[in-house]
Here is the input.
Amino acid sequence: MRTSMKLRPYQERVIEEAREAVRNGHSSLLIFLPTGAGKTAVASQMMANAHSMGARSIVLAHRRELVVQTAERFRQYGIRPTILMNGFEFDPGANLVVASQQTWDSRRGWLDAEYRLVIFDEAHIGVMRQRRIMDDVLAVSPNAVFVGLTATPMTNSGPGLGSIYSYLVHGPTIGELIEQGYLVPPVHYVMQPIDFDPTRHIKITGGEYDENAVMDWFRGEHILGDVITNWEDHFYGKKTIVFARSIKQSVYIAEGFGRRGIPFAHLDYKTPEKDRRRIISDFRSGKIVGLVSVDVVSEGFDVPDVEVAVIATPINSVTRYIQRVGRVLRQAPGKEQAYIVDHGGVITQHGTIYNFQQWALEPARPNRRIPYHAVKGLKAEWMRRCPECGHEFRPGPKTCPQCGYDFYRLPPGYEPPIIPATMVEYTEAIRRERLGIRKKCRGIELPIHINEQDLYDLLLHMAAIRGWKPGFVDILFYSALCVCPHELKLVKKPDHILLDQYGDTPNDLASRVVKRFFVLRNRGYFSNVRCWG
Here is the structure.
């Protein structure tokens, strides 16, 4: 096995910082590296270092595609792992293992040898399962070191990453990687005009928009702008991934491209394994120019020459937003730009991909969901009913076992209504226009004589009086205007200047902003907001 490889400077820094953290007593580390920053290269070097010291290593992923993809990438780096997953022959004597987290759960107790290094890919997924795996490993290897790799160090629900990791190693931001030439610069496109504020109208469940509420808001399957026509007019022939909001809409979009002679394919969790491998292989080779999916290719899916990400659904989760647009930021021969096309009001809500600067380790918090093992066997199993013949059966098959009815078949003449909108590049002028719309949506409209810097000063002044941290002020500002202060390049003035200017009494406007924030927070908004300058 190759014991060293050529690493980028920031990758060497990340590995050295991780080593230093272990030397200082941390046995569980979370490493933040954006999409395209080379998480697999970092993991490979860590495994090579462990192997050179005679230690065995495991890498775990939460999806079948990621397990296979990770093992293949390790082979490119000269590492020959064995795979622990259904359908693969497992070598229990191997020093390096790439495993499926689900297979680990189903074969608990298989571990009978010490593994000193355990790496979790996409560590923001499945905190409770990671904790169970850690307990299994520690029972055999008390001195094991756990490393989580992620491009988005936050979770939508559950106990929080701080409950299993004690130290965050912070890699470069997306903006820094673009400046250094490791990622391609994106161009953002939005639909214009648009008067759509998802955070005001759509229910949030588990940190993400409730699918049924989204469907109701869009009156079934409405789409902001014409996805297919816009793609033909502006991105014809460019390799594309479309993120839909439902399987039904995903099938419709894929078939819509097909009716125009453009090879797009739909992919979902229940696509047969043989078909899935064929579709992904054809997409990599270029036989298929586009994939349409809800969530299958959102995380870890590595096809560097994808140029266009089309978002055809609202996204409340910052994690999902960053993961999805990250699919198009990787470098590839001949690729100079990436294109992010927003048909769901996502950029209006979260800002551009440059908006996410620094992260902090998410604190441990009470689990907001009942653990699966606590309800398994108690929850009544629902039955699926065929609308054609009335046959009831356990959920799973995509077609009725009795009459063959296809549950995802589109009705004759089905065509989602399109909300008229023109695609335009997201510029500073557009951002400020949207900002004006968002002021009204939040119920906070600044007086004519008050600008954004004035509001920021008033909130900082209130924080100085009440002893709040500056980070909370950024969240308050976002709650009012839906834009982070650093994006507007606002100045954070010292407390003594603010107190001299405004006195010892909070301003009425700032008090209204704070009150509005707590009202909206209690309704489930802002659960995923991160604003750091």
